[in-house]
Amino acid sequence: MQVRVTSHRDPEPLALEAFERLGAFVMRLEEVPDAAELSVAIVGIEEMAHLNEQYRGISGPTDVLSFGCDEPCAAGSDEPITLGDVIISPEVAEKQAAELGTTAEAELNLLLVHGVLHLLGYEHDADEAAEAMQARERALLAAWSDQS
Fold it and tell me: Domains in the chain and their CATH numbers?
């Protein structure tokens, strides 16, 4: 299981290793095959706004985007299976954290978990699905907090 985190911001003030550890933790608990690979990109607010407009047709930045790989995901027999890409905007996360009265770290963790769950098929387009996704997010974050 491999998690690759890249930053498109210079300099990057966040500890990217924390994203790697949390991403791998979520993948383990979700029983993703060991041969899987997850890509996480940390982007600035302008880049996130561009991606949101380009791929969702929505003006302005969002907090997290997930892009699953096209079928089939597997590469060669000795290469990892690509789970997909999660893109996070820390500036949007920090703003949301302030509005919600939580920490930026907690919000960033939630966004990563949320993005990975989307790659694994979770959705929130209906109330029941949203409740299931939010319950799983809470369970994963509680488990992460317990082991940290």
Answer: 2-147 (3.40.390.30)
Scan for tokens 């550890």, then name that residue: 21
Q: Model's pTM, two decimal places?
A: 0.92
Cβ density class 67-80: b for 16+ within 10 Å, e for less: bebeeeeeeeeeeb
Q: Pick from 70, 141, 67: which is nearest to 111 by CA?
A: 141
- Asked if residue 72 has a cis previous peptide bond (ω within 30° of 0), the answer is yes
User: What's the residue count for the chain?
Assistant: 148
* CB contact set of 21 (below 8 Å; sequence gap of 6+): none
Which pLDDT tens digit goes with each residue over 25-73? 999 999 998 888 999 999 999 999 999 999 999 999 999 999 997 554 5
pLDDT tens per residue, range 82-124: 899 999 999 999 999 999 999 999 999 999 999 999 999 999 9
Phi, psi torsion values for 48, nearest 5 degrees: -65, -40
